[in-house]
Amino acid sequence: MRRTLVIAKPDAVERRLVGEIVRRLEQKGLRLVAAELRMIGAETAAAHYAEHEGKAFYSDLISFITRSPSFVMVVEGPEDTWKIVRAMMGPTDPAEAPPGTIRGDFGTEMTENLVHGSDGAEAATREISLFFPGL
Ligand code: CMP
């Protein structure tokens, strides 16, 4: 799987960090295949985050991701591009995200963590068809 879904979340759009995030992905050598600034609705958010339903942070997560537009992208590169993007994002916990990663350079919050990237080939396939059916 050479493609992965990347979301610059509402905090990234609000903080005018979309250009910086796209710049990093492109400078790494990855290519945008699709991209759109859009509101993620409650239904799409619930489908996207189904695995987190019932967790303590779930309702905050849904409120956050649906509160203002996100910049949703499909990014392409070599096999397992999802791994490259995950490394560039840094871990979810901002205290563990090293400088040089997107979260390490720009984030301090667990929920408002700027970016989402698919966490495997299967997730990439599912998430791309959820956000860009027919791609
Ligand atoms: P994301 O990679 O989009 O996937 C799940 C999201 O839940 C995660 O980024 C965070 O925005 C959010 N989240 C909030 N708290 C936690 C937590 N304790 N563990 C994992 N994810 C969390």
Amino- and carboxy-terminal Cα gap: 14 Å
Continuous helix count: 7
The CATH homologous superfamily is named Nucleoside diphosphate kinase-like domain
User: Might you state the CATH topology name?
Assistant: Alpha-Beta Plaits
Global mean pLDDT = 97
* Corresponding CATH architecture: 2-Layer Sandwich
Helix/strand/pairing class, anyone?
A: alpha+beta
Strand order of the largest sheet: 2-3-1-4
Radius of gyration: 14 Å
Biggest sheet descriptor? 4 strands, antiparallel
Give the DSSP E fraction (strand runs of 2 or more residues). 15-25%
Runs in which pLDDT lies below 50 for 5 or more consecutive residues are none
What order do the SSEs take from the amino end to the carboxyl end, as H and E? EHHEHHEHHEH
* Helix proportion: 40-55%
How would you characterize the overall build of this protein?
With 135 residues, the chain is an alpha+beta fold. The radius of gyration is 14 Å and the shape is globular. The chain has seven helices and four strands. It has a four-stranded antiparallel beta sheet. It has one domain: Nucleoside diphosphate kinase-like domain (Alpha-Beta Plaits, 2-Layer Sandwich). The site of adenosine-3',5'-cyclic-monophosphate (CMP) has 8 residues, from loops.
